[in-house]
Design brief:
By secondary structure, this protein is an all-alpha fold. The protein has one helix and no strands.
Length: about 60
């Protein structure tokens, strides 16, 4: 500091802290996106299984 109260003593350290915070947020968003994709795949798989089960039930009823 050179007498100016608005200057920070360690601008490099503050920049590093901001970069680390941004990196943590990017990782968090990426993890959330991965969870959402996994959830959608799981839901799509469950829906496909339900559809297949319904088709088997209809086929069995028609065969009876």
């Amino acid at each position: 500091m050179n007498g100016h109260p608005d200057q920070h003593p360690d601008p490099g350290g503050e920049a590093a802290a901001r970069a680390a915070q941004l990196a943590a947020m990017v990782v968090s968003v990426a993890e959330a996106a991965a969870r959402l994709r996994a959830h959608r795949r799981s839901a799509a798989h469950a829906a496909a299984e339900q559809d297949a089960s319904a088709r088997r039930a209809v086929a069995a009823a028609e065969a009876a």
